[in-house]
Recover the amino acids of this structure.
């Protein structure tokens, strides 16, 4: 794990958040336990390393309670009186099974215009169906990836000229937001290009959808290493020296995920992990047992 993959505030002692993170980490061993939104078979090596005391060789390790996956449930789309179906779900209804790659980079992820256009060109050249959530950019800095401002983008200015019309038969580009859990659980989705935020990772795993890992900020570079090297549920993307991901790389990864053997292997592993995730909250499942132990620890003797 390269040190550069750690969150930015951890690497810069002048960062305003550095003292807070340091204090939190120093006090972690004093806690009564750790409640983790994960499950044992997903991160077995990491969990065993902690519980065996290897992270705190000179002090007792607090108990670890892995009670995940805790994610939003897909909405029930049937029955009278339900809210109107989101347009992107209606569009997915008309697509073949596992034929669409979904691209979404979280509530804070942003790109420069240059990067957006590289993504667009790569998607077009891949020949694959895609559903792409595009946020309003706030900077032309290729390496600026986080912004919590919410503005609908002007797609015609961001995307290459004619892109929307040329790809309207096999693609849907939506502004700012899509119902991600519902999208990932739709039978038409065959792959997910994600920023590797932990909620998105768990949502994809529980839907059995393989991923292309495209980390942007915070702990996402670390999550990418676990996803690719340890869990083997995602493939990485490569970037140029200036941080730009080329159209050729986007095309290559989308094709591999959706149409080549590499993607089929990841898809099969993802399906198996989905099955594992469905059992952990069953009676005597690992997360149910962990939650029971956690609740018992709260009982006043």
């Amino acid at each position: 794990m390269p040190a550069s993959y750690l969150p930015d505030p951890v690497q810069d002692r002048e960062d305003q958040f550095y003292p807070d993170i340091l204090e939190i980490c120093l006090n972690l061993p004093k806690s009564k336990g750790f409640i983790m939104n994960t499950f044992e078979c997903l991160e077995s090596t990491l969990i065993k390393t902690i519980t065996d005391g290897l992270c705190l060789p000179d002090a007792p390790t607090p108990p670890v309670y892995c009670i995940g996956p805790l994610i939003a449930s897909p909405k029930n789309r049937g029955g009278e009186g339900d809210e109107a179906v989101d347009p992107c779900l209606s569009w997915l209804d008309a697509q073949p099974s596992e034929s669409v790659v979904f691209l979404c980079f979280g509530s804070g992820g942003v790109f420069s215009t240059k990067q957006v256009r590289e993504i667009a060109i790569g998607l077009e050249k891949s020949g694959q169906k895609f559903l792409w959530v595009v946020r309003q950019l706030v900077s032309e800095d290729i390496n600026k990836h986080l912004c919590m401002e919410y503005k609908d983008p002007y797609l015609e200015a961001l995307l290459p000229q004619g892109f929307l019309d040329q790809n309207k038969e096999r693609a849907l580009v939506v502004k700012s937001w899509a119902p991600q859990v519902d999208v990932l659980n739709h039978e038409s989705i065959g792959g997910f290009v994600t920023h590797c935020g932990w909620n998105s990772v768990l949502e994809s795993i529980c839907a059995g959808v393989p991923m292309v890992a495209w980390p942007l900020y915070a702990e996402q570079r670390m999550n990418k290493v676990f996803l690719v090297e340890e869990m083997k549920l995602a493939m990485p993307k490569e970037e140029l020296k200036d941080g730009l991901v080329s159209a050729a790389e986007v095309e290559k990864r989308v094709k591999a995920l959706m149409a080549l053997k590499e993607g089929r292997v990841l898809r099969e592993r993802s399906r198996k992990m989905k099955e594992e995730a469905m059992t952990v909250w069953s009676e005597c499942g690992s997360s149910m047992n962990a939650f029971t132990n956690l609740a018992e620890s709260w009982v006043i003797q």
Remarks:
- The mean pLDDT is 92.
- The radius of gyration is 21 Å.
- The beta strands are 34-36, 64-66, 100-104, 129-134, 171-175, 189-194, 211-213, 234-236.
